[in-house]
Design brief:
Blueprint: E1 4-8, H1 12-21, E2 26-30, H2 34-41, H3 50-58, E3 63-66, H4 69-73, E4 78-81, E5 87-88, E6 93-94, H5 97-109, E7 114-117, H6 125-133, E8 138-140, H7 150-155, E9 160-162, H8 167-179, E10 187-189, H9 192-223, H10 227-235, H11 256-266, H12 274-294, E11 300-304, H13 319-329, E12 333-337, E13 357-358, H14 361-367, E14 370-372, E15 387-388
Parallel strand pairs: 1-2, 1-4, 2-3, 4-7, 7-8, 9-10, 11-12, 11-14, 12-13, 14-15
Antiparallel strand pairs: 5-6
Length: 396
């Protein structure tokens, strides 16, 4: 007998979860974006993820899509909540309104369903909601997914963490393992607040590692040293390793910037220095890179791709946009090559924040006298002499 599962929110987290679980269960994906639902019903993925596209086209999934909460939640044993929780600059906290809206709907429409939050939330959120709304059917299970590789990471999970040690928590973990392509998955069952902290501390550690190697690179550049040789030598220490060490223009994307700031906010009454320094370091790195580019006295700077990482279609808070803004603030003309930009992402005059967008690579190359690329691409090999990048290893 299959389990009915509803997934609320069909971004990269929710859609990858829906595909994974629909291998062995009846899954209904819910999203309020009608255009997104229609695309999914036609078998197409609204996000760039090769495995999700393959599953939708080729896998035998018991998966339907709707914009109707009542239809989605009816008879569901589990409701997975994967709606956005953007960081609110005014409150210095995640905006959890979308998560709470789903919780309210489920309590009204399917009060016996167990809700599993996959959205990233502040430390203490589950305990607060349980007491404030009188809602006991609520669990938090952090996701550890990469954009563009979300379904792959669900199929090959590094670990599964569930913020409750109960029969329903273990049943949910079993469903995830059953859908995966591997059996030997580390399972950890914790208290809810500890699970929330695990997510934020894990992402902040990754941000710290990015910041560390970026500061190493800034030092080497300033002293005329080889960043590659230093990083290779440092990485030979097995306690450090040679992973996640490629210099960049700074950490960015949807998760790391907001998660580090949320963790800092949760430290409001706890002494700390390191978390604040990680955030400051990322700003300093962007300042340094922009200055290094401007030191070449370019007349026109070309930004090659706005994406955060290879294999993704995400522009949100990409580090190269921070570089772009700094260069433009000094009066230098900036043009952009980004074939993935849609018309609704452009200004009224067809520009991206006032910069002309090229979708023809040759015209873009001819226009820019310095081409800024967070990650080097083979299509830039013929103009390598005017490419500015800190990509040493060809990896994210």
């Amino acid at each position: 007998m299959t389990t009915k599962i509803a997934v609320a929110g069909l971004g990269y987290v929710g859609l990858s979860m829906a595909c994974l679980l629909a291998r062995h269960n009846e899954v209904v994906g819910l999203d309020l974006d009608e255009a997104r639902i229609e695309l999914l019903r036609s078998g197409e993925s609204p996000i760039h993820d090769e495995d999700i596209s393959r599953f939708l086209a080729e896998e035998d999934l018991t998966l339907t899509f709707t914009t109707d909460p009542a239809q989605a939640y009816a008879g569901a044993e589990f409701v997975i909540i994967a709606t956005p929780t953007n960081y609110d600059e005014v409150t210095n906290y995640f905006n959890t309104a979308s998560v709470e809206a789903v919780i309210a709907d489920v309590m009204r429409l399917a009060p016996d369903a167990t809700m599993v939050i996959k959205s990233t939330i502040p430390v203490g959120f589950v305990d607060d909601v349980r007491s404030r709304l009188g809602c006991d059917n609520l669990i938090f299970s952090p996701e550890f997914l990469r954009e563009g590789r979300a379904l792959h990471d669900n199929l090959h999970p590094s670990r599964i963490v569930v913020g409750e040690d109960s029969s329903r928590a273990r049943r949910f973990a079993e469903l995830l393992v059953k859908g995966a392509d591997v059996d030997d998955v580390p399972l950890l069952f914790t208290e809810p607040t500890e699970a929330e902290a695990i997510k934020l501390f894990a992402n902040t550690y990754l941000a710290m590692r990015v910041a560390f190697f970026n500061e190493l690179d800034s030092f080497a550049l300033s002293r005329g040293l080889s960043s590659r040789q230093i990083i290779d030598g440092v990485g030979l220490d097995p306690r450090i390793g040679s992973h996640y060490n490629n210099p960049s223009f700074g950490y960015g994307g949807y998760c790391l910037p907001k998660d580090t700031r949320q963790l800092l906010a949760n430290y409001s009454e706890v002494p700390q220095n390191l978390i604040n320094a990680i955030i400051d370091s990322n700003t300093t790195r962007k300042d340094f890179v922009a200055f290094d580019i401007l030191d070449r006295q370019p007349k026109v700077v070309g930004i090659h791709r706005l994406l955060m990482k290879a294999g993704s279609d995400n522009f949100r808070e990409s580090s190269v946009q921070g570089i772009m803004k700094r260069i433009k603030s000094k009066g230098v003309k900036v043009v952009v090559f980004e074939p993935e930009l849609d018309e609704d992402q452009l200004d009224e005059d067809g520009k991206f924040y006032g910069s002309k967008v090229y979708k023809n690579l040759d015209k873009f190359k001819a226009k820019a006298d310095v081409i800024v690329a967070n990650r080097m691409a083979p299509e830039l090999d013929d103009v390598r002499d005017k490419v500015y990048t800190r990509d040493l290893f060809g990896s994210d």
